[in-house]
Amino acid sequence: MTDQPLSLEQRTAELNAIAAQIRVCQLCGLAKERTHAVPGAGPFDAEIMFIGEGPGFNEDQKGIPFIGASGKFLEEMLAGIGYNRNQVFISNVVKCRPPENRDPLPDEIDICTKTYLYRQIALINPRVVVTLGRYSMGLFFPNAKITAIHGQPKHADGRIYLPMFHPAAVLRNGGLRPQAIADMQKLPGLLAEAKGEMSSSGTPANEPNDPPNTAPPPPQPPSQLSLF
Question: Which contacts qualify for 23-30: CB closer than 8 Å, 24 or more apart?
Answer without folding.
Answer: 23/63, 25/95, 25/96, 25/115, 25/116, 27/111, 27/112, 27/115, 28/96, 28/107, 28/108, 28/111, 28/112, 29/108, 30/94, 30/95, 30/96, 30/97, 30/98, 30/99, 30/104, 30/108
